[in-house]
Amino acid sequence: MAGMVAIVGGGASGALVATHLAQQVNPPRLVVMEPSAELGLGIAYATHSPSHLLNVRAGNMSAFPDAPDHFLDWLRGEDDPSADAGVFAPRMVYGRYLRSLVAGSGAVHCQQAAVGLKVEADAASVVLADGESVRAERVVLALGHFPPVDLPRISAEALSAGLYHRDPWRDFLLPSDRDAPVVLIGTGLTSVDMVLRLREQGHRGPVTMVSRHGLLSLGHAACEPCARPVVLEGTMPSARAYLKAFRDAVRDGVPWRAAIDSLRATSNTLWARLPAGEKMRFRRRLFHYWSVARHRMAPSIAEQVARERRSGHLVVRRGHVRDLVISGGAGRLTIVTSRGTESLVASCVINCTGPVTDYRRVESPLLRTLFLEGYAVAGDMEATLATDAHGALEDASGACSRVLYAIGPMRAGTLFETTAIPEIRQQARDLALHLTGMCS
């Protein structure tokens, strides 16, 4: 392939697509636009905490679909000679793996944020924060996840006091009083990470998690793989029919974890078959249950969380936040539950509700440009970006770009499974083949 590919974003998605492009027979020149000092880390793998583990076994974390033991071999050579395929490695170790891959790709690291874009017929100019531009024949958007949206009705006093933390990864500070109560909004894996981080840094106080459904992620456990398809060919494309197929499999003796794992290979196909109304129904009624079963904790972390709950140091509450104010010198969070309203006292409130998916609400000049210029439109249920099977952006006229592409979490507007390494590595490989094939 001749010319240049600009990769906007240098986390896991950007590192993987750079790695696969570099392995092509006639690789393009590569530039990765990422303001962070190091490539390959993003949010997930920039952690310095050894207690933050991968939630996928090492045997399924290779960067290469055709070399499933690549990460495991690297892990044994670089970190843990006794590691087996079932180990859940520290995320910071996986970050080192990604850094080594992108370093070998020959990509140039442009340590600036991309703030704008001008698309031509066969190329695009990416505008950088310093006002300079980089012209490339293809642009791959690999921006990963964006911080949560703010909670409603947070008082000015609570904000000025530093009580509320919108982004758990960028503005979190350990409370000065290590016995003070902490409230985490959300009960997903980010909240679990925050509990581990608090304890690792010596916080002794009680921690309360609050979410609308009060469901905590479940843990991994060994089980025999599912020997048959869970959703059979010809199953009606509806949320109810998919749920029935899953329940039937479990009733027939398939372990629920094995049933969930077996669906992974076909989930994007099954999702694409659903009419818009059924997708909405699934998101509204079933997604929270799917999430806690699909995105599981490493066994050692699940046990630590269970100990915290048994001791009463961690409490999980069902409800939604009404407001956050300062009262009597402390933060007071009002939550609405099935029994009415309740107040929680907190010295620190951390928003762990997960990344925003409606990109029109994100404070990003680059995303604003994409929408305002008609280069992109939102995907299903207004999530992220609409893309075709190769990741090409769909524009306001309904046409698919030959210049702009997305990868990873930025494709959640089209794909159901698109945020984990096994899916992103396949996208990276397929996109690299597609881009080099277009220009050969």
TrEMBL record:
The keyword Hydrolase applies. It comes from the Bacteria. The keyword RNA-binding does not apply. Pfam families: NAD_binding_9. InterPro entries: FAD/NAD-bd_sf (IPR036188), HpyO/CreE_NAD-binding (IPR038732), L-asp_N-monooxygenase_NS-form (IPR052189). Keywords: Hydrolase. GO terms for molecular function: hydrolase activity. Residues 6-146 form the FAD-dependent urate hydroxylase HpyO/Asp monooxygenase CreE-like FAD/NAD(P)-binding domain. PANTHER family: BLR0577 PROTEIN (PTHR40254). This is FAD-dependent oxidoreductase. It comes from Gluconacetobacter liquefaciens (Acetobacter liquefaciens). The lineage of its organism: Bacteria, Pseudomonadati, Pseudomonadota, Alphaproteobacteria, Acetobacterales.
